[in-house]
Amino acid sequence: MDDKKAAILSEIPRLRRYARSLLRERDSADDLVQDCLERALVRLDNWQTGESPRRWLFTIMHHLFIDQMRKVNRRGEAAMLPLEAGEAQAAPADQVETIASREIMDALQAISPDRRAALVMVAIEGFSYAEAANILGVPAGTLMSRIARGREELRGLLDDSSRRRSIRVVEK
After folding, report:
1. Does the pLDDT at position 171 exceed 60?
2. Based on the number of CB atoms within 10 Å of its own CB, is 21 exposed (0-12), middle (13-18) or buried (19 or more)?
3. Would you call 141 exposed, middle or buried from its count of C-beta atoms within 10 A (0-12, 13-18, 19+)?
């Protein structure tokens, strides 16, 4: 039993990263991770010993996220707070990489949750298309379509933000 718990605990950083990619607010992401871990510990017997708990935990988290989004849609509440103009770069960055990373994260948050989840599963978390499709509960073709459309949408958003960054306002 302790080996199972240790294996689950070692996945917490990945779970937090995935939760942060789904939800903008750190507190909401931490709540999602906590709910996921709570559900996993209650249903510990459902996990097959000998396998990595990663896919099982990500499936639990994704289902919790979808349930949360459905509740929000039914109540008519906003799932994420919109960014105000310039809020993403409120503090001046010392490095170009910091600005680029911020722009990528903002662009990732701007695409639909389905496309974002598909992209994060494959591109960041390293799941295969088959594993990601299984975790998200969609056919592999649907997953590949979401990834392709998400990448296209990200390119458009990032091209637009890099153009805006290169324009300077000169006052007389």
Report:
1. no
2. buried
3. exposed
